[in-house]
Design brief:
It contains 3 helices and 2 strands. It is mainly α. It has a two-stranded antiparallel sheet.
Length: about 70
Amino acid sequence: MPYASVEDLPTAIRVHLPRHGQEIYRSAFNNAWDEYADRGAKEREQVAHRVAWAAVKHKYRKDGERWVERR
């Protein structure tokens, strides 16, 4: 289901991603959720999470245990 705020994101995302990364994730997830409304509930959620991670990885990369902005 869509996330109303970054505080509603899963704990792992809130703990590990910087605030801007969380905002990207939430926005991408919510957009994908709307875009893939024709899918079954489970598939829709899985696709939305994959789209959200792809959006985050476009702006951030993992450096050890930290997510850092791409330059």
